[in-house]
Hints:
- It is a single chain.
- The protein is mainly alpha-helical.
- It has helices spanning 60-64, 74-81, 102-114, 116-130, 134-143, 149-168, 177-197, 201-205, 220-229, 240-245, 260-276, 288-304, 318-337, 342-355, 364-374, 380-385, 388-402, 408-426, 430-452.
- It has one domain (35-452).
- The N and C termini lie far apart (61 Å).
Amino acid sequence: MAEADEDKTIDDSDGWEELGYENSHLIRRRDGDEDLSGCLGGPLSSLPPPITSTSNDTGSAQKVAKSDCPDLTEWLRILLEGADVPLDTNAPINSFPGWLDMEKVRRGRRFAMENVFGLVYAEMLSLAILFSLRGSLEPLIYTGKSSTPFTSYQRYLRTVLRVCSWYSSDPWECGSEAQRQLSEVRALHSAVSRKMNGSPGQEVATKVTLKGQMIRCPLTQELKRDFEDSGIPKAPEGCPFAEVSSLSRKTEGKVVYVNQMDMSITQFGFMGLVVMFPRKFGMHDCTEEDLDSFVHLWRALGKLLGIEDRYNFCSGTLEETRVRCSELIERWVKPNLLEVNEEWEHMYRCLVAGIRYYVPGNTFAVSLSYLCDVLQIPMPRLYAAMGWRERLLFLVHKLIFRVFMRFSGVRRYYNKMLSFALKKARNASPEYLQKLQENDYLYMTAVLNAMWK
């Protein structure tokens, strides 16, 4: 690691450092974005902080704190408090908190680049988890930028490119691609937070649902029955997590959108499954030190993105983070899967369909089956609904990650293939993008045909 200590950019022969946005027809910077870099170390002064609730209504987290649920751990109680605390987008973009260990950060970045294919796959599966949480799904529906295959293609390609830039270049180097993309994300979060929290509640409520729109959700009821028969315990009556996060919740008070709790759980989406099940995503020779460094990297990235230390999912040791991941999965994620709805299925279908435009070889059923296999949730109805090609593809995914990726050469091959696919997608021509956009029409035609049957 001595040589890496001097590097500003992780050396990678596959050219990940070139996955920028500058020449992309898909991604255009907004006018004035160069002012968002925050290179001088100050806050994003051009962006006012997110609006907090000024309503006399009691916030949802304050209401649920009174619920009778004595077995909540200290961490889950802290996490619940964050539901009423807005994101901090005024923290300096290049701050160096006292706990920051740059050697760990570099090791975490190197680990990420050596296992980027497995990381991206795990992050895609994690979105099925995050979509089951109301605080994650509602802002996505509100923005209207990921509810069709093409818009999902655009949105999540941006996300993958941004996250890869955080791994491949130094977020603390002034003017680096990582710092520019961190500033962009902060600006986007701030804008969505201001807009949602500054609008009347009834107006927001009409924009955070897909009801009345054409959506594709043929398996929702079968999936719900699978989850119910799997033995997942329902959330107890008055459970504060269910009241805050359930897709079927009835919000009585003012909701703070893009809050500390939601952002902390989003942090889990980028590292949780890998920390819990590294070998199920091809990371067979990773060490505890590697995973500890990766967690530290995400603690630092979370800080830069506006998560306060108190609510940072990755604060503490590797083992403490694993315990938090387990608590979240068992106490919140699994019970929420019992209440998945048509909007959840539609949004995840669009996500997978969009990703297939540049990384083929996956489907909604295959990705959900792999996630449930990792979480040890039996899904017989989902498996029965899969054709032989999807069943074969599911088996191939298991063989790739759990057998073939034991060999470092195989991991490097898939990392390189992902790099190639992202470069090709980033540089897609306007004509190709137009063709993909036309596919949305075909997709919605299929939805209509399914409705008429």
